[in-house]
Amino acid sequence: MDKQVYYLRNTQIRQSLLDQIRQLPLDPSKPFEIEVSPPKRTLSQNRKMWPLLHDLSLQVVWYGEKYDEDDWKDMITALVAKTKKQEQRTAPGIGGGVVMFGERTSKMRVSQMVDVIEAIYWFGTEQGVKFSEESRLRIEWAQRWGEQNKRAAA
Fold first, then answer.
1. CA 32/CA 2 separation, integer angstroms
2. Which Pfam families would you find in this protein's record (predicted)?
3. What radius of gyration, in Å, describes the C-alpha atoms of the chain?
């Protein structure tokens, strides 16, 4: 059986899921795994994140260095890490240098991606980044995120 994903939006979908579960064979030696979780990030969130990271990569010099979009993604996700599991860690690289361990945005939930996008707006605004017209309409999210986190840090 291939993996099936249900998005619970209405009673009909719920009923289909329950019917599917009832049809699964019960075998103690080969149990099925059923996971219930909020949805992962949306494609829309991903499409929004990359141009914002591109804006950072073009306009921000951080401690004398310019970074690409992937580097900024790592720095922003470290900024919004909320649990020990999500914190970015480093280790000496096997071939030298430093290896960073961190959360992949592809595995983040919608609410986590909201935090990432808001943090990009907040940080970019703090650094004087000029976002596109569409991005500017959403800067209020960043201001709200920044205020909440300034209070939490105090």
1. 12
2. NinB
3. 20
Judge whether 56 and 142 are in contact, CB under 8 Å. no
Name the pTM for this structure: 0.64
Nearest Cα residue to 49 out of 103, 115, 109: 115
What sign results for the dihedral spanned by CA atoms 25, 28, 32, 36? positive
How far, in Å, are 4, 8, 20, 48, 97 from residue 45 at the CA level? 23, 20, 31, 5, 32
Pair 57, 124: CB distance under 8 Å? no
